TrEMBL record:
Subunit and partners: Component of the Mediator complex.
Gene: MED10
Role this protein plays: Component of the Mediator complex, a coactivator involved in the regulated transcription of nearly all RNA polymerase II-dependent genes. Mediator functions as a bridge to convey information from gene-specific regulatory proteins to the basal RNA polymerase II transcription machinery. Mediator is recruited to promoters by direct interactions with regulatory proteins and serves as a scaffold for the assembly of a functional preinitiation complex with RNA polymerase II and the general transcription factors.
Location(s), subcellular: Nucleus
Similarity-based family: Belongs to the Mediator complex subunit 10 family.
Protein name: Mediator of RNA polymerase II transcription subunit 10
């Protein structure tokens, strides 16, 4: 549990009815970091802190009396400060969410449905593309068979040219992935 969460939890039991005497804004003191995961974690912590402040505010308002006016003002100020801090932290996060996902959430549906639909769509398009590729391979094979019966010397020459071209392409691809010391370049895992 980080310090912002512990401040929220500590505040719910501090002064009775969840009233908190003082509160510091721990997320405002966090250093500026360019790491996207760290920025996202700061935003998540700020959201959790804001939810805690809203809960505390609810408790204060639900049992409001004249003595709780000052804590109510402090909580309102803390909420405004944290919301301002959340906006500043969110500006550092570059997260793009498709509108379809937001619409699903607004409709009360699970956003995983969007992921499932996108994957199913990709599978369907992949099957269509594979069918087209297989059809072209069949056409090519059929054409080569027909051409070989009609023009056997030209087809043999064509196959030799294709084999030489394929070998050259493979050699170039390997040369591009070779380091000066003979080792192969390896793609980094993401």
């Amino acid at each position: 549990m980080d310090s912002s969460q512990s401040a929220v939890i500590a505040g719910t039991g501090g002064g009775g009815n969840g009233m908190m005497i003082s509160q510091t804004n721990d997320t405002a003191a966090t250093p500026a970091v360019d790491d996207p995961k760290q920025n996202l974690n700061h935003v998540i912590n700020s959201i959790q802190k804001t939810l805690g402040l809203l809960h505390q505010l609810y408790l204060t308002v639900s049992s409001f009396n004249a003595a709780s006016q000052l804590p109510l003002l402090h909580r309102l100020n803390s909420l405004v400060t944290e919301l301002d801090n959340m906006v500043k932290l969110a500006e550092k996060c570059n997260i793009q969410i498709p509108m379809e996902v937001l619409n699903l959430i607004d409709d009360g549906k699970n956003p995983d449905e969007f992921t499932r639909d996108v994957i199913n769509s990709c599978i369907a398009k992949n099957q269509i593309t594979k069918g087209k590729t297989d059809a072209f391979k069949g056409l090519r094979k059929h054409l080569l068979e027909e051409l070989e019966q009609t023009f056997p010397n030209e087809v043999e020459s064509y196959r030799e040219i294709r084999a030489a071209s394929a070998a050259e392409s493979k050699r170039l691809a390997q040369a591009q992935s070779m380091l000066p010391n003979g080792d192969m370049k390896v793609k980094p895992e993401l």
